[in-house]
Model the fold of this input.
Amino acid sequence: MESHSARIFIIFCCLGIGAAYLVHLGGMDVTSLDIDSSKLRRVAGNLFMELYEDPLGVVRRGWDTIKPGGAWHPSGFIEHKGHLVLEGLMMIIIARFMLQGSSKPRKTRMVGEGLTEDEINELCREWEPEPLYGEVTEFQKTWMANTPTISSHAGRTMTVNGVDGVLDFCTTNFLGLADEKRVEDAGQATMDKYGVGSCGPRGFYGTIDVHLDLEKHLSEFMKTEEAILYSYDAATVPSIIPAFANAKDVVVIDDGCASAVRAGCTLSRAKVFTFKHNDVGDLEKTLAKIVAEEKRLKKPLNRRFVVVEGLYHNTGDIAPLRDIVRVKNKYKFRLIVDESLSLGVLGATGRGAAEHCGVDPEDVDIIAASLGNAVASIGGFCAGSREMVDHQRLSGLGYCFSASLPPYLASTTMAALDIIEQDQGVRATSLTKNARLFRQLLQNEKKLFDTVSDGEHGISPLIHVRLAHVSTDTSTWDSTELLLQHTVQACLEEDNILFTVAKYSKLDASHRPPPSIKVTVSATHTEQDIHAAVQSLVKQTKKLSI
Done:
């Protein structure tokens, strides 16, 4: 109320100032004013008549009044001491605000105010909080109770649950570099010099010379102008997309993209569209529709992206990048490719799906990849133009606010890249051979399994093995996952072969693929290993299905 009355007081003061100003400008005596409404109407009528009959004369007389020396010029106001009136009113206003009491915020009614203590206690007894997590399924209970424990190097064979010689068809150690001695020696030498951690983010005091060496090495390996290193691979893509896209921008993603890409889109707050998995025709329809709609609404220019994975986590198939590049160029979109699983695996020199599809690195605007798969390290990177990389050094959240990659991991990554370049595709050739053999053997069991095709003659080392004729009814998928979990447990306990069931977050329930056993083939596997793995899957699945 006090603030409202203060406003009214100020309004009246301003009206008084205006009246005094007019009186003194006209040299009139306040006591001589005759406030007669009929007289005012006559004056107004005469004024309109003059405007109609002699508009130029009215304008001339008006100018004579306000020009220098006229009755309404500020000089006249000063001559009649009008400034004293203004100064007096200002003193009154200042005194008013100095003497008034301090205002207090309006008290809001709290929830439960006015209730008795017994009523409050009863409400508290009846209240039930929302659960922090959803109901745990039988599959999750079984998996958590039987999670395997590894106590050796990741390699062709490992020690699992205290048992030696278990065949590994579970980790993404595609090229067998995790237990490569040259990689271990590089890490050990760097650890002796720098210790085990940098203890600081890159932008402040966490940049060490090996980080810069690795970024240079990555840019040369990927044939781009520059590269930027991230400390954690799961935060790489979710940092890159929000660094370039915001609420006014558009991101179009493949429906088969994994959670990292979807998390990046969510964090960016951009408008997200999806197209059918690996369907270039549907992609073109989607882009054409977006462009036509923005043109119709005359929207301002914005940034528009297409995001795909070179080798998809959720399906194990390869993106048709050559066709995607053609479509994105036609509609003037930028392309982001996640090469996390394809790095070191696809392409003549291991540079990923873009090289495999014959796409020039300059046609991919942003290349992202994890270092935790074929390269057998930790972290991730982004490669591309110098301007694009430099922008992330201030806008990539995972770069700015995370401690930098431990120096010894930077050295092991460089050693792994050297091996990939030096062996001239020998490991990748062996990997492709093993992947094709595994898929061919599964093709002989079509009545039992449904293997996701990679569309590239079976060269993908990531294989999702599903039970044949899986129902499209998602309500039955929990029981299917439980059956697959029992299958991989039996393979481990009876045949010493380690598999895993593909796992997805409950947040991805709307677009998760059917349940499957996720199999990863390595270049170090022998033909006997591949045959033993397929035989174990067939035997245990038949046994449990019966």
Summary: Confidence is low (pLDDT under 50) at residues 17-33. The CA atoms of residues 146 and 489 lie 8 Å apart. The longest helix spans residues 2-25.
